[in-house]
Fold this sequence. Notes:
binds flavin-adenine dinucleotide, 32% helix, 8-stranded mixed β-sheet, 489 residues, single chain, 19 strands, alpha+beta
Amino acid sequence: MAEPLLTEADLALRPGHGVRSPWLREALAAEGDPPPLPGPASDMDVDIAIVGGGYTGMWTAEQLSRRAPALRVVVVERDICGGGPSGRNGGFVNAWWDEIDTLVELYGAERAVAAARAAAESVRAIGAWCGEHRVDAHYRQAGMLVVSTTPPHDDRPLGAVAAAEAAGVPEELVALSAEDVQARCRSPRFRGGALMRDGATVQPALLVRGLRRVLLERGVTIHEGTRLMRLRSPRGPVVRLTVEGGGATREIRARHAVLAMNAWSAGWRPFHRSILAWGSYMVRTEPIPERIAELGWTGGESIYTARFNVEYLHVTRDGRIAIGSGGGVPGYGGRIGPSFTDDLGSARRAAGAFRHLFPMLADVRLTDAWGGPIDVSGNHLPRFGSLAGGRVHYAMGFSGNGVAPSHLAGRVLAALALESDEPVTRLPMVGPPARSLPPEPFRFLGARLMRAAIVRREAIEMGGRRAPWPLRQLTAMPRRLGYHLGPAP
Ligand SMILES: Cc1cc2nc3c(=O)[nH]c(=O)nc-3n(C[C@H](O)[C@H](O)[C@H](O)COP(=O)(O)OP(=O)(O)OC[C@H]3O[C@@H](n4cnc5c(N)ncnc54)[C@H](O)[C@@H]3O)c2cc1C
């Protein structure tokens, strides 16, 4: 496949550390660009301390403040709420029906369907919550397409379709012919695929900032610019969190603590072997509603391609195409450094994806590029649970698909912190942290090698050819080792 041509303007685009995503800039501007909330003025005693002001932490606080309004709940966030991936993601709000084959393999059909149904409930609950709380996060439930863009990938969407059928839920993921796909969006690259009805889109930062507003109205305490430095006595009756914020070090004493730090969890000892931080980058076009109508892409479906280095795209309310590419680079250990926000190569890969999928939009300008870390787990699904002692709860491993699952995480974490046994706390992804990934430096080196091999393999496959046998075997190594990562041979 010839490299798609990037325009001079594409080449001038720079993702930037310290530059907020355009979604977050828009959301903050709508709020009048408020200053960050101050750090704690003194040590404090609370019922539940939540670390991380992204969706997971905030949905947990939302559940707690609704279910038990008298509880003293505090959220600490090192940046501002939504400063991480929750304010900079692709806006796909997905259930797990497209992962049903993996779910069935891991947990059996019955538990797999229960988990996927719980994620689907969260897709709908997010929309209902936005309506109830007047949070206009541009929520639109119009389904999600997974499409093949080259003959060697044609059977990939069909594996999950067959698994949905075998699990007794054929209506959840329906095969689409190439004509069906073209009727929904006319990219010359799109071939056949599948449609999942439990898919919606949002302007992600409006959602996370809407959550922040509602929590503040309910009296939840939020400290921004406040970072967890140390966590002590996780097994005692009182968990002690040392935080730094506003130039001071304070102690928060809590009956329960919730760690909702996403990719940053990789830097904390219990989770060293649970996740690998990986970069994901996006670009978006100028508003082009008429051109999008010419593509026939008027139904509002989100779309992702059946590649391992997945491309994901949707149309925004103001008529832009926002498109991301999962082909970023892995991080080392728990360090979340500039490679997650400043990597020009990864941003250009996202721009290249747009140019490749829509050659007829060659004159359309890309206006923004940005990136962030995702937390890849060994089975590509999140894990929720409690550490030994039962007072520190966590969620992580969303693997780049966390907008709806973080709502589910909030339901699980709130129930765990309330010590309440419920159907969601019995889902198969609830349990102790998985320690499945190799230690550093092997994890980083292996991930770099695999990434290079997969990029090479997909470049060949995008030209319509099968990759050579040795390369297919190499890229299938993670699967041979028991991970649900990377392509099958
Ligand atoms: C470019 C990109 C595109 C994506 N697209 C999609 C998509 O379309 N659909 C989808 O489902 N998912 C997508 N994702 C993934 C999705 O954004 C995440 O899974 C989701 O936001 C996770 O929410 P969270 O609250 O767990 O994490 P985060 O939003 O990362 O929140 C964690 C917070 O913890 C804070 N924190 C970390 N360490 C500390 C500490 N020591 N003290 C205090 N605070 C701390 C961080 O600053 C951060 O704000 C994408 C991710 C990226 C980067």
